[in-house]
Amino acid sequence: MSSQANSYEVALFGEFFARDLKAILNRITLHSESSHRMHTREVVFEPIDAQHREMGNEAVLLRAKKELTGKDEGWILYSYLKPESVRAHPEATVRPWATCHSLGHSLYKRGFLFRRGTLVIQMFQQEQVDPTTQEPIPAHPDTLWEVEVKTATPIQNTQETPLSQSIDAVLEVQLLMKGLLDLRRQDV
Length: 188
Fold this sequence. Notes:
The chain is of the alpha+beta class.
């Protein structure tokens, strides 16, 4: 079994009424090195499949956060995993997390979507974003079309669903398109 080093977040959470704001703000300010106003935009993505929660599993959330004050520093993407057991860490919430800084940009694709068994095939043109309205600008007629052939849902390599089945299904589409469209591996 390989050991993977996780990043963790240690946190405490609380709530209070507005009437206590001044006292709490003064106390925290007194015991802090610095302070500044905060205004962020956060987008939380969670699985639509409620089955995970019904089975007692904590849903893994993907969050995108952007600071709205000061200069544009882009988006930060992060995800929290299931918190560690309260027996291991009764003092605070300890949970693995992953984070990366990202440039904030929108990507628009327009085209067609096909299903083939366990695969989804996307054929699309990328559209640019109008910097003023943030709306998509239709692709120029000469813009290249792109094709992606991939499994429709994540696959786990088990005896019941070996990865080789999915590889074979993708290679079958590659063979079907031979001479018309070159489908190849992309390591980006």
